Amino acid sequence: MAITKGENGQHNARITGFWCYLVRLLQLVDSSLAMILEFQKFFPEVYNKLKEDSKTSNYCKFNSQLLTFFTSSLYIAGLVASLCASPITRTFGRKSSILLGGAAFLIGSAIGGAAYNVIMLIVGRVILGVGIGFANQSVPLYISEMAPPNIRGAFSSAFNFCVGFGVALANIINYADVKIKGGWGWRVSLAIVATPASVLTLGALFLPDTPNSLIQHSKNQEKAKMVLQKVRGVEDVQVELDDLIQASNISRTIKHPFKDIRKRKYRPQLIMAIVIPFCQQVTGINVITFYAPLLFRTIGQGESASLISAILIGVVKCSAVFLTSLIVDKVGRRVLLITGGILMLVCQLLVGGIMVVKLGDHGHLSNAYAFLVLILVCIYVAGFGLSWGPLGWLVTSEIFSLEIRSAAQSIRVSVDFLFIFLGAQNFLAMLCHFKAGIFFFFAGWLTWMTVFVYLLLPETKNLPIERMDIIWREHWFWKRFVLDDEENLENKALDI
User: What's the pTM?
Assistant: First the structure.
């Protein structure tokens, strides 16, 4: 079959995007690595509860501030790093931030693998957080700016697919490392992240910067045109290039993007930069992903069975995200977000009900009910993979105007890290105090966010990224902010 120029452009864009997807494999460090650490050495309080304390509630055995700080330190570091990454991404380009992120991953994995006390573990994890902060700030922008509009959803969904793949792969590695005699298997899990980090860093050296970035920070229109021709696979890219130049000219008038994003006309975009990552976290997905082995040990499964359950959850999530990448540009963002929200809501209510009725503080679930909980969690994860998982990143990577895009993405990533940090830091305490009520807590938020999407999130499929301001002008609610602000500016100009 002959390959057309347009198809060749999509092929070139896929090759370029491939290196970016590797950054999500670095989410190996986000999974339940702490679960295979030497609890007796690093977290003796938890070890004693597991082995010797039969009076502590099922929901409280892992309630350790040291353990939760180890988990959450990665995200507070990522929050700070994402804010620092914004001016670097804006001034020096997306590629520079990707390289810095890769270097941080390499350093963090080396320190973590060589750790001999908790302090070294936390230091290594903090540096890994810096890597994730830089990568999450720059890579979604890179992919959205490189991808053709008609397959932008598939590209960004593939970005999230690698999150699920990385978590699933991490759990498989954890399961294998638990079997290593001598108690040093956890070092393999912490150090092995250097492998994809090396590929990412070396691969990024050969990446071109995006046309948007080249025009914005180097003003090299000819080089931007060559990159655009290569990734689109056609010679005539003048219309798109003119849109990029116009957007860049507007962008240069914005000297302080973090200040300007607070203007009324950017209000819809600022709200989405905050609300969408907040909604992603209050689905409860991260506590399921991070603590899946703990959850299944809480309901009475052994260590190996818990890790196998976590592997299954990771495979289900990957499969769901892959399906989303195939259909998102046809079905649209809103339909998938609403459908996934309803699916997750039902599963949270059912799991919470089973835990209340059948588990209790000191009981165990029968094999039949434990299997049912596993099935419901898998359906829940599939719902997330069809909706808020990939689309929470996709929508925020495409709705921001170029002049505030870097700042808005930093806010988006920072909010994401802030609530991941708060969730990771407080989940075990919440589980101890709320018990099964934790599932109803997340169900309440799922109800709210599904209504929010239905009423306030506009559809963005197949719309060129440089013309995304149209969706705010035409939306029944948000147009009052955008149009009123523009009218005020016109009136001031007339008065002058």
Answer: 0.69
